[in-house]
Amino acid sequence: MKKNAKTVIMWGLLVSIMIATGFMVSNAFAQLYENSPNRYENNSYNYDNNSSNYNNNPNNYENNLNNYSSSRIIRNESGNATGYAVPKANGGVNYFDTNGNRTGYQSSRK
Q: Among 88, 110, 83, which residue's Cα sits nearest to residue 44?
């Protein structure tokens, strides 16, 4: 093989590796962005994620700690309510303490 042909093959291989690496890195950044608390979709300032929204409010019967039939109530090992979880329309979940303060979230699984 001539020297120029080897050079072309080496550059082609290098470019292929760079493209594959770029796809992997961009996928990793996309995952980080999807789960970021700074993303509006996950942010507590988003009305859909805070307790000002009745669906997330502790006064909603589904979130009421005295509603023993609710599947949203989170209980500790002793059976005491420690908060509640509200499913989101996009498949995620918002977590609140007993006072209605948002304590966390789980992003949707896409």
A: 88
